[in-house]
User: Fold this.
Amino acid sequence: MRTFPIGGIHPSDNKEWSKDRAIETLELPSEVYIPMIQHIGAPSTPIVKKGDKVLTGQLIGQAVGFVSANIHSSVSGTVTSVDAYPNGQGQRRIMVVIKREGDEWVETIDRSTELKRECTLTPQEIIAKVRDAGIVGLGGAQFPTHVKLSVPDGQRAEVLIINGVECEPYLTSDYRNMMERAELILTGVEILMRAVSVERAVIGVENNKPDAIAHLRDVIAKGNYRGIEVMPLKVRYPQGGEKQLIAAVTGRQVAPPPALPISVGAVVCNVSTSIAVYEAVQKNKPLIERVVTVTGKELKTTHNYLARLGTPVSRLFELAGIPEGDVKLLNGGPMMGRAIVDITAPLIKGCSGLTVLSGREAARGTELQCIKCAKCVAACPMGLEPYLLSKLAKLQKWDVAEEHNVVDCIECGCCSYTCPSYLPLLDYIRIGKQTVMTNIRARAAAANKK
Amino acid sequence: MQTRLFAAPSPHIHGGEKTPRIMGDVVLALIPALAVSIYALGWRVLMITAISIVSCVLFEYLIQRFLLKGRNTIGDLSAVVTGLLLAFNLPVGIPWWIVVIGALVAIGIGKMTFGGLGCNPFNPALTGRIFLLIAYPVQMTDWTTSVPDALSGSTALADFKLQYVTNAVSFDNHNFLDMLLGDMNGSMGEIGALALILGGLYLLVRRVITWHIPVAVLGTMIIFSVCAAIPMGGAMLWQMPTFHLLAGGALLGAIFMATDYATSPMTHKGMIIYGIGIGAITMIIRLWGAYPEGMSFAIFIMNAVTPLINKYCRPKRFGTK
Assistant:
């Protein structure tokens, strides 16, 4: 069975806590906070003001430039404020606050549940619809999907890879989508194949989800979905990393930055993103809701909710019953998720799960000296030397860190996870990576001026 | 009680591997060899081992406390491992005070001078042993004291050396099965070949070590000894490599000493180069050098080369050929 070529770890997947929880539609929130930045790229410009009436699915934030994404209202009601509010990490971001009144949708959106398979649009038309709908990568990266689908001149896509790996422990939203909404995923895949003009699509799923693999295969056979293959992959974190997944599926490695997946003929989309694409193209529905897992060992109940974006995460946690004592709330899973410090923050496009770790589970051990055990080197899926990069960042030797390819780091956390001396390797490497990237951009800007 | 949120960057969970547990595994892996040694050489083995371990731990504690004034580090159990390995490299008849001096050199000079665990360029136990070999050559190569009658006064490797320089090599007097089970002369920890192999397998299963270093060391030794046996031909072709793997410190060195984290390379490729170096130097000393055994010197020399290996053997960057 295939997997990616180097590094990786095997954290316990902890999916049993929420994997059998069917998707429930969350009650409509009384108020939503919708950030104008929920994507990689330029923040969108709010096009509504206080007092405006908006409908569900109405455009309220206009994308700025190509690498950016539209933002839509997830409820109908009145705009009560357009101002800076804290996001999950406590950073203040421009958000549109809407007080909900009923649930009146924009007329052009087809709200029927009937599956609409036929699509005769051209690639350009599909990409335009995806862009209009404000779709971004729902696996967590939040990269605008229309940018991914726009294959640059002179390059050609050969295979569409659909990411159903969900290698992050605890999270089950992609899994639930594969189990309950396979037709939507597969129809979305057909549309995506059309958008990038490929005959072949591979859905990569780790073999700890045999039922999802069997179900997808069953639906493919029954629905006669052509050119779509489900590929079981050997369980190993971080297989859901874009470069890791491409290598696992095709055997080809994307060259170091700034090379993109298209350089090896691959376009990668998440399974949940595929559903959003289906809905946007076939039903004119913008990205206003998503499936989100709420999970943790000590929660009273775990859930997989279909929730409107902008819903305060506090509501989701409330319904699950946060335990008392020290807890860490995560936007995402325990390996790459971000700690939430302000629970009034809203649910955003890239949030595939909210994980609650107990203080004990998330506790960091006492830092000891590096014993040069080389476990971090063996675990790094990018072929880096984490112990060295971390030390270089600590000593602020940015140029040496750059020579040692610190910008290749995908921040998967395998190094810190595996370190027997409990060194916060990734904390330092992340600082090194950010500093070096800033330096590289500054150099490029200076070169441009000349 | 209230809910208190706390925050830190990802990753938010840890694999649970800990330095003391790794060191504990090494200790555990050495127990079978210790048992064989006690069985073959008597209870004095336990006394020497205990003196060595206690001295190493004590010196680390005292140096950290009174000279370096740092955090107490004996809890990481690395001093226990050093003590155990040092004892394993000594003859059973060694006077107790020499053991204490060896421990002082191992911990004091070999380890703490450089900043403690992980910072030492040379394997501390080997530093101690090599110091003792130079300072107390007579006591360090005296295999007769308190050794049961069954065993003679010289090691198999010393016998071999004598035969090899006079072109009269014969393994007829060696029963390889006895050597495998521990019935031979040598340092306390090196005689139980089978027990050492078992310990090595345990370390592999527990992922404390990888196969690269032991296989490279032993593989190189096999190739060398087969080549050396070619002129003699016949049964020598298998007897020579078997003898060299079982005699002396080959297994103890390849499995437990050469794999010391701090002093061995960081990449698998580097580990293989390092292992080949150790195997080659060991055999060169054994076949043509002045000493009958070369494992300690070989590891020591390759320890010195490790930083250079680390500089040139970088891991393969993802996406490059």
